[in-house]
C-alpha cells in the first residue's frame, strides 16, 4: 500500500500528467458552465447521401463546442469528459431538441431524416424513451424522421439486466417509427453479438473500412460487411468517404448510402438550408 501511495504521489507530480489532469478539469468546468449558461454549443449537420443520385437522404447532427477563449474543441475530446461528468445527459437532450426542431422543416420540404448520436449514459436513463417521445411531440418531427446512433461500446460494461432495459427502451422508440443505427461498426468488441441483442435498423460502417475500400482485399472485407447487413435487413451506410475512387467502389458494392468530406462537411443549419435549396424539393 505504501508503495502504491508512493507511485500515486509520483504520478501526481509528473508534470505532463499533472498538465493533462488540469486541462481535463478545466474542460469539465468549461462544459459545466456552458451547459448551465446555455452558451458555447452549436449543432452542425453533415449530409448522408444516396451514392447513386448524390441526393441528401439524411443529415447527422454533430455537436460543436467553443471554449471561452474562442477555441473550437473537438467532440473527440469533450464528449468523453461530458460522459464522465454526467453532463452528457442534459447536453444530449439539448442536441436532440435542436436537431428535431431544425429537421422538421427539412423533412417536410425534402423528406430527409436526422440522425442524432446518443451516449450509453443517456440510454441507461430509465426516462430516455419518454424524453425522446416528448421531444418529438414538442417539435412536431415524425418518429420516422429520427435515427438514433449508438455505438457498440454502449453494452461493453452493461449487465444482462441493463442490456435488456436498453433493448426495451429502443424497442419502444421503434414502435413509434424511430430507427436505431449502430455507429462506427467494425471498431468495437463483439460486434456480431450486438446485432442479435439490440433492435436495430442501420449499420454505419466505420471509416477504417471505407478508407481502403479501393484495395482488392479490403474491398472483399467491406463487401462481406455490406452482405452481412443486408442479410439481417439492416441498411448499410459508409462513413468517412473522401475520394471519388471510394465512392465508385461503394456504388459497385451497392452500399446505397454514404457520408464523408467528398460529399459535404458538417455545416451550420443555415449552410445546410442553402445546400438543400440547390436540390429539388419533394413533390407534394
Ligand atoms: P461519429 O458519430 O462517428 O461522427 C462522424 C465523425 O466523422 C464526425 O466527427 C465527422 O466530422 C467525421 N467525418 C465525416 N466525414 C469524414 C471524412 O470524410 N473524413 C474524416 N476524416 N472524418 C469525417 P466529429 O464531428 O469530430 O465527431 C466525432 C465524434 O464525436 C462523433 O463520431 C461522435 O462519436 C461524437 N459526437 C459528436 N456529436 C455528438 C453528440 O451530440 N452526442 C454524442 N454522444 N456524441 C457526439
Ligand atoms: Mg455518429
Ligand atoms: Mg460514426
Ligand atoms: Mg466515429
UniProtKB/TrEMBL annotation:
Lineage top rank: taxon: Bacteria
Domain EAL: from-to ranges: 24-280
Protein name as it appears in the record: Bifunctional diguanylate cyclase/phosphodiesterase
Organism: Dactylosporangium aurantiacum
Taxonomic placement: Bacteria, Bacillati, Actinomycetota, Actinomycetes, Micromonosporales
Amino acid at each position: 500500500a505504501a508503495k502504491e501511495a508512493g507511485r500515486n504521489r509520483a504520478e501526481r507530480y509528473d508534470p505532463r500528467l499533472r498538465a493533462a489532469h488540469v486541462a481535463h478539469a478545466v474542460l469539465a468546468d468549461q462544459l459545466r458552465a456552458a451547459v448551465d449558461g446555455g452558451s458555447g454549443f452549436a449543432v452542425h449537420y453533415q449530409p448522408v447521401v444516396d451514392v447513386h443520385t448524390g441526393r441528401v437522404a439524411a443529415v447527422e447532427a454533430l455537436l460543436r463546442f467553443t471554449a471561452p477563449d474562442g477555441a473550437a474543441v473537438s467532440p473527440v475530446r469533450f464528449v468523453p469528459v461530458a460522459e464522465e461528468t454526467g453532463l452528457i445527459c442534459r447536453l444530449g437532450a439539448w442536441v436532440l431538441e435542436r436537431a428535431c426542431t431544425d429537421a422538421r422543416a427539412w423533412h417536410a420540404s425534402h423528406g430527409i431524416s436526422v440522425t442524432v448520436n446518443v451516449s450509453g449514459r443517456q440510454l441507461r436513463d430509465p426516462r430516455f424513451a419518454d424524453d425522446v417521445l416528448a421531444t418529438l411531440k414538442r417539435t412536431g418531427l415524425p418518429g420516422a424522421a429520427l435515427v438514433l446512433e449508438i455505438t457498440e461500446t454502449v453494452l461493453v460494461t452493461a449487465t444482462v439486466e441493463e442490456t435488456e432495459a436498453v433493448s426495451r427502451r429502443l424497442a419502444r422508440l421503434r414502435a413509434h417509427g424511430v430507427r436505431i443505427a449502430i455507429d462506427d461498426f467494425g471498431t468495437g468488441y463483439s460486434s456480431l453479438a450486438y446485432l442479435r441483442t439490440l433492435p436495430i435498423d442501420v449499420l454505419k460502417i466505420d471509416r477504417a473500412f471505407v478508407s481502403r475500400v479501393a484495395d482488392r482485399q479490403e474491398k472483399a472485407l467491406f463487401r462481406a460487411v455490406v452482405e452481412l447487413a443486408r442479410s439481417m435487413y439492416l441498411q448499410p451506410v459508409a462513413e468517412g468517404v473522401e475520394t471519388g475512387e471510394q465512392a465508385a467502389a461503394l456504388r459497385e458494392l451497392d452500399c446505397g448510402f454514404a457520408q464523408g468530406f467528398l460529399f459535404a462537411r458538417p455545416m451550420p443549419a443555415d449552410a445546410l438550408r442553402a445546400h438543400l435549396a440547390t436540390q429539388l424539393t419533394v413533390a407534394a
